[in-house]
Specification:
It is a single chain. The chain folds into two domains: about 5-315, no CATH class; about 320-435. The chain is about 60% helix and about 5% strand. It has helices at about 5-10, 15-25, 30-45, 50-75, 80-90, 90-100, 105-125, 125-145, 150-155, 160-185, 200-220, 230-250, 265-280, 285-305, 320-330, 365-370, 380-385, 405-420, and strands at about 335-340, 355-360, 360-365, 375, 390-395, 420-425, 430-435. Strand 6 (about 420-425) and strand 7 form a beta hairpin. The protein is elongated and about 80 Å long.
């Protein structure tokens, strides 16, 4: 489990009144997902927590893959659908979030299903078909509101004769989403950790887009028809528009995180699947080269596939951190978290800090209806720390950005001025240090 999954685990196990009260203050964007997980933990009480936490994402990715096969089959034939499904299942971002207790795989599955329903609605032009499409898109948006960006891609994909109806459905979806947007905008401090768009994100977006455009150029004839949605007309906007729009918004307020638009990889898979089908249908050397290239790509992805299934693929390893805290914290008077949000590391296993006074804590996460709890004023933290002889500091590794709020500043200042580091352990994503008064290590 890593820190984001811990938040899911903790929120899902709160009582419904506590969960509702917390969502009114923070993390409303994930509220529907937490409610789903709450129901699962109630239903499968006593089962392996990680199984309950992650199985929805596994099943959602399997469903997304199967639906993508049907979508590709309807747009370009059985082999295109099959290859597109295989490509989708092999993509590293898809594999990562297929095994994570967060909402992104479920959102992706719903967007793929909505894309399938969009193609059907454009063909049938019935109220029921459009209603089904709208309901599924709205469900995706309620699971994570950035799914709303797919509406732009879908509108571009529609033939002109169906675009007016599509626009009306999109407006209805946005109306249904509006209350969640209004609530989450009041909680915008929650995404203050997102920095500006880095070079890696831009290079990744550019690379995937170039790949999609190259595949579209190879296909050529798969664009929009007068009456129906074509494969290229759907897949290329699905691949490019949601991340592009999020990148543009990030010029004003940084919001770009690639997992927020994970569903765009469905477009990548459709384009690559159709292009590979086209190349395999060719004769002679082109067909041989296409088969060899596909095999080489699968082999090249194997190390990444294996690495994604190791703890080192995540930002931190909460199990390892809890074990390290238990091993060195037995003789400490208290514990401080640097920054306070790292208190999340102890939520799955409170035994790791049993007997240790949390020197900065005011009210715990459940009592304060927050994710990480609230802390007392800086002056109180200072007094509590100075009253201790040995302090366990649990925080980020060296070199990470530090918070400059008064509570965090006073923790660092007191440790640096009045204590010396006696022993430090490193776990994935964390540094655990025992501090004592000079001469008392």
């Amino acid at each position: 489990m890593w820190r984001d999954e811990v938040v899911t685990y903790d929120m899902a196990r709160r009582s419904l009144p506590d969960l509702w009260a917390t969502l009114a203050e923070v993390d409303a964007v994930h509220g529907l997902y937490y409610l789903l997980q709450h129901g699962l933990f109630r239903l499968f009480d006593g089962a392996d927590p990680l199984l309950v936490l992650r199985l929805p994402s596994v099943l959602a990715t399997a469903a997304a893959t199967g639906t993508l096969v049907l979508l590709g089959r309807g747009l370009a034939g059985p082999r295109t659908g099959l290859v597109a499904g295989l490509v989708f299942a092999l993509l590293p971002p898809v594999q990562r979030y297929a095994q994570e207790g967060r909402s992104y795989a479920l959102v992706c599955a719903l967007v793929v299903w909505a894309s399938y329903l969009l193609v059907r609605a454009a063909r049938r032009r019935t109220g029921g078909a459009w209603a089904a499409y709208g309901v599924v898109v709205l469900a995706a948006c309620l699971l994570h509101e950035f799914a709303v960006l797919v509406l732009a891609a879908h509108l571009v994909a529609l033939p002109r004769t169906a675009r007016r109806t599509g626009l009306l459905v999109a407006l209805a979806v946005c109306t249904g989403l509006a209350p969640l947007v209004a609530l989450s905008m009041r909680q915008s401090d929650q995404v203050a950790w997102i920095g500006g768009v880095g070079a890696g994100a831009l290079i990744g977006f550019a690379g995937v887009t170039v790949l999609g455009v190259a595949c579209a150029a190879l296909l050529r004839g798969g664009g929009r028809s007068r009456e129906n949605v074509g494969l290229t007309a759907l897949a290329l906007p699905l691949l490019a528009l949601p991340p592009l729009l999020l990148l543009l918004v990030s010029l004003v307020k940084p919001l770009y995180v690639d997992r927020y638009v994970l569903y765009g990889h469905a477009g990548t898979a459709l384009l690559v699947g159709a292009a590979l089908d086209r190349l395999v249908r060719a004769v002679g050397r082109i067909r041989t080269l296409a088969v060899l290239a596909a095999g080489a790509a699968v082999l090249a992805l194997l190390p990444t596939t294996l690495q994604l299934r190791a703890p080192q693929s995540r930002t931190d390893d909460v199990t390892a951190i809890a074990a390290a805290v238990r091993s060195v914290g037995g003789d400490a008077d208290g514990v401080v978290f640097l920054p306070s949000r790292r208190r999340v590391w102890t939520l799955p296993d409170p035994r790791s800090v049993r007997g240790l006074r949390d020197l900065a804590l005011d009210r715990g996460p459940v009592a304060s209806h927050t994710l990480y709890g609230t802390e007392v004023p800086a002056a109180v933290i200072r007094a509590r720390m100075l009253a201790a002889a040995r302090i366990l500091a649990v925080g980020d590794p060296a070199g990470q950005p530090v918070d400059h709020v008064p509570q965090e500043a006073v923790k660092r200042r007191v440790l640096a001025t009045y204590f010396v580091a006696c022993r430090t352990l490193h776990a994935l994503g964390a540094r655990i240090t025992v501090y004592a008064r000079p001469g008392r290590c």
